[in-house]
Amino acid sequence: MKTRHILMAFAFILLTSFLLIIIFSRSSEERALAQDNAVPDAGLNITVDTPAPSSESVIDVNPAPTKKPIADEKPDIDISSWEYILANSEHNIGKYAPTVVAIEDTAQFFDERAVDALVDFLNAARAAGYTPYINTAYRPYSTQEYYYNGKASQLSWPDYPDAEDYAAAALLVAPPGTSDHQTGLGVDITDKYYSSLDASQMNSEFLDWLADNCAQYGFILRYPSLRKTITGWDEPWHFRYVGVEAAEYIMKNNLCLEQFVEMYK
């Protein structure tokens, strides 16, 4: 009986030793495999041997700024030239009066130095299948003064207009000396069949064509919707002559004339 117990104990020891050998062997293999397939983690400090850079593969992590294309540089112009005269609430041009001539066979007038460009613009619109109509072009100081005073009187009726009435009128009619029409370079173009200055009643396709093609004839959209906070007006029918070079730059960069002039100060 005693011998039997001794044999059983010896067998148990052998079995236990054999199991320990197997467990230790499998654990070593798993550690080796884990090391071979390790994935870098942000929380680990992993040292990697980095080859020394060669002269052929050096990368400048702080390259010098690339010069903008010539097309994106502002035009080399004389901002004091007549094409860029600015009339608005902050730039009163007084009683400035350019030399104007009739636009084709209409009763509207335009600066004689730019009227040919306007006619070319109108003819291009006709060739595209539209019927452009000149609603308003040059408006002298005296006419603008008449409209402005009339609006103030209308707002104050039956009393005489006071300072508040004139301030309210200025939101609807430009005071004399501040209207783009007085420059002789601004023009309101509408469709022949929609002569009212109401964009909701006008041919939107025609207005889009004018805006898309005006620059090649030297004109810009003078009062774009996105620039109303600067200009004070939103008039998709009002175009202004500035010359081809300036017009292409202004329209390409979605500027208004105020922003363009400011670039040269």
Q: Radius of gyration in whole Å, from Cα? A: 39 Å
- As laid out across the biggest beta sheet, the strand order is 3-4-6-5
Helix content: 25-40%
Derived from helix and strand composition plus strand pairing, the structural class reads alpha+beta
User: What are the low-pLDDT stretches, counting only 5+ consecutive residues below 50?
Assistant: 22-71
Specify the biggest β-sheet.
Answer: 4 strands, antiparallel
CATH overall fold name? Muramoyl-pentapeptide Carboxypeptidase, domain 2
The tally of strands reads 6
Label the overall shape. Answer: globular
Oligomer category: single chain
Q: What is the residue-averaged pLDDT?
A: 82
Count of folded domains = 1
Describe what you observe in this structure.
The chain is of the alpha+beta class and 265 residues long. It has a single domain (77-262), classed as Muramoyl-pentapeptide Carboxypeptidase, domain 2. 38% of the residues lie in helices and 11% in strands. It contains eight helices and six strands, in the order αββαβααβαβαβαα. It starts with a helix and ends with a helix.
